[in-house]
Amino acid sequence: MRFLKRFAASIEGASALEFALIAPAFFAMLFGTIQMGIGYYYAGSVQFALERTARITMVDQDMSEGEVQAAFANELSTFTDQDVDISYTVDDSGDVPIGEFSATYTHEVIIPFVPAFTLSFDVETRVPLTPE
Length: 132
Description:
By secondary structure, this protein is α+β, with helices and mostly antiparallel strands. It has one domain (12-128). The protein is built from three helices and three strands. It has a three-stranded antiparallel beta sheet with strand order 1-2-3.
């Protein structure tokens, strides 16, 4: 009985116990913040690469969709090797044709103690093209 009273009154190791209780939540938040930062960095890189590809298309307007995708992959290769879906269409309904670009990037977020989930980032841009 005396041992239990002495054990309950002891404060040795209290800091280690408190850290052990708080550490999982702290590390989950830390790694979650890092994962979200990486995801937003890649999303910004995809947007930048898509806008650069649109500017390239404004200069060389005879590019096919395959050439646009290759130019986009080349622009994106300097940032990441992530798989990104891109589409390119030309809207001829008005007086000035409009090149419409869209890209979708999906980032898988892995955080300790949290089930993995994915974030989808959609990017669009439009540029005027020279009428024929």
